[in-house]
Design brief:
16% of the residues lie in helices and 36% in strands. The chain is built from 9 helices and 25 strands. The protein has helices spanning 6-16, 116-119, 132-135, 182-188, 197-204, 223-236, 349-353, 403-409, 418-428; strands at 19-24, 32-34, 41-43, 50-57, 65-72, 77-86, 89-98, 106-109, 112-114, 141-149, 155-156, 159-166, 177-181, 240-244, 253-254, 258-260, 267-276, 283-291, 295-304, 307-316, 324-327, 330-333, 360-367, 377-384, 398-401. Strands 6, 7, 8, 9, 10, 12 and 13 form a 7-stranded mixed β-sheet that branches. Strands 19, 20, 21, 22, 23, 24 and 25 form a 7-stranded mixed β-sheet that branches. Strands 1, 15, 16, 17 and 18 form a 5-stranded antiparallel β-sheet that branches. β2 and β3 form a beta hairpin. The longest helix has 14 residues, at 223-236. It is globular and about 55 Å long. The two termini are 37 Å apart. Residues 4-205, 224-427 form the dTDP-4-dehydro-6-deoxy-alpha-D-glucopyranose 2,3-dehydratase domain. One of its GO terms (molecular function) is lyase activity. This is NDP-hexose 2,3-dehydratase family protein.
Length: 438
């Protein structure tokens, strides 16, 4: 497929199936109910996921204690991308997949994107297309297979297998799938709300090819120094996490249409009824988390010793398995911090928000996990900085890393968070190349 033909193909796939998402009262969701003992929002099968409560105490930041609803999905799913060479060029099998939380519903996803409940057919629906390439005995050559976390602010210890598999033999073609090169996917990553989160996280785990990103020898910090910094960050934070019944979560109110905070900040839990003719089940109901603003996820970068470096942060999020992961320089929803000033605001947020257009090397609006979040979008940016804005001696909680070093860490689970992986996918695919304005 030519890249220029992709928008028409995606539009044709949208016309080929009926899709509809309608808001529904939480008490009226088919198959879902509030458990009498805990108030948790659960599915009648006991599978898929549940909405429960979390009590959090941290040792830094303007907010040290809070409680919140959180999604508990203990089973690991598969995010799998199938690769195959055509005329000596590696292509990737991508799916036009409907997810109820995406504002435009249909986006480009990996070949397989399924929870264990889905591919084990708890819903008694159709099987997952191409699943045999990732879980069957005759699957192809595995190139990448790593458990990665997802949004630690909204998921409790959720992880999915991120897989890249090279196909062996012929692959049957399906009308809702297409073969694209990595360069083509990179071009599509320049567009808003086109390549979904699950595709981005898998692409971030591809090994970077060639020395363009710099080598360990060229990095400001050696791999051992980087590992030591991250280990220190994990060890120094005092974080207490306790799961509690949803009915005991303070600061939130349950209404007919949502569970939300009275001040309107952060997010709300809402319900939807879904029609999706192309999915394994043609219709269902479910809760979704709906954020109350647009997020910002950005890397500040500089050329240090002639090599691009990213300013990474050590982020503590309540839902992480290891409590701390490496994130971008800035990861925040500006609306939630607008009432705060000075040191109480996220470090470098105002630098990113006030960046001159000539310093922005990449900017696109991308959807977050459309299967669990409603209209969750973030502005993803790479912003060039100078010594006065982002000093070579990084402040506490931050460290300069090369893209190659960050990519190498994706070979390990629970090291690089999903927002940083989304940005890394833009480098891996060639959607952005970090150059100096000078």
């Amino acid at each position: 497929m030519r890249t220029a033909d992709f928008p028409a193909w995606l539009e044709a796939r949208a016309r080929a199936h009926r899709f509809a998402v309608r808001r529904a009262p939480l008490d009226g969701l088919d198959g879902w109910s509030f458990a009498p003992e805990t108030g948790d929002l659960v599915h009648r099968t006991g599978r898929f996921f549940s909405v429960t409560g979390l009590s959090v105490t941290v040792d830094e930041g303007p907010y040290r204690q809070w409680q919140q609803p959180i999604i508990q999905q203990p089973e690991s799913g598969i995010l799998g991308m199938l690769a195959k060479e055509f005329d000596g060029v590696l292509h990737f099998l991508m799916q036009a997949k409907m997810e109820p939380g995406n504002r435009n519903l249909l986006q480009l996803s990996p070949t397989v994107q399924a929870t264990r409940s889905n591919y084990s057919k708890v819903h008694q629906g159709a099987g997952v297309t191409y699943l045999e390439h990732f879980s069957g005995p005759a699957r192809g050559r595995v190139l990448t297979d790593v458990l990665q976390s997802e949004h630690g602010s909204w998921f409790y210890r959720k992880a999915n297998r991120n897989m890249l598999v090279e196909a062996v033999g012929d692959v049957d073609e399906h009308e809702d799938f297409c073969w694209l090169t990595l360069g083509q996917i990179g071009e599509l990553l320049k567009l808003d709300n086109t390549v979904n989160m699950d595709a981005r996280t898998v692409i971030a785990c591809f090994p970077l090819d060639g020395p363009a990103s710099g080598t360990t020898r060229d990095a400001l910090h050696t791999d051992a120094e980087l590992q030591s910094w991250f280990t220190m960050e994990r060890a120094r934070h005092d974080v207490e996490i306790e799961r509690i019944p949803l009915s005991r979560v303070s600061g939130w109110e349950r209404g007919e249409s949502a569970i939300a905070r009275p001040d309107g900040r952060y997010f709300r839990v809402v319900g939807v009824d879904v029609e999706a003719a192309s999915r394994e089940v043609k219709g269902w109901s479910q809760p979704l988390f709906e954020p109350t603003g647009t997020g910002v996820a950005a890397f500040l970068y500089r050329s240090l010793g002639g090599v691009p470096h990213l300013l990474a942060s050590a982020r503590v999020e309540a839902g992480f398995l290891e409590k701390t992961e490496i994130g971008p320089t800035v990861q925040a929803t500006e609306n939630n911090w607008a009432h705060l000033r000075g040191a109480d605001r996220p470090r470098f947020l105002d630098t990113v928000l006030g960046a001159a257009p000539g310093r922005i090397r990449y900017e696109a609006l991308h959807s977050e996990e459309g299967g669990r979040f409603l209209n969750a979008e973030s502005r993803y940016l790479f912003v060039e900085a100078d010594e006065s804005e982002a000093p070579t001696e990084a402040p506490p909680g931050f460290c300069w890393v090369t893209p190659e070093q960050l990519n190498a860490l994706t070979a390990h689970g629970h090291y690089v968070n999903v927002q940083a992986r989304s940005l890394l996918s833009c480098l891996t695919s060639g959607a952005v190349r970090l150059t100096s304005a000078a």
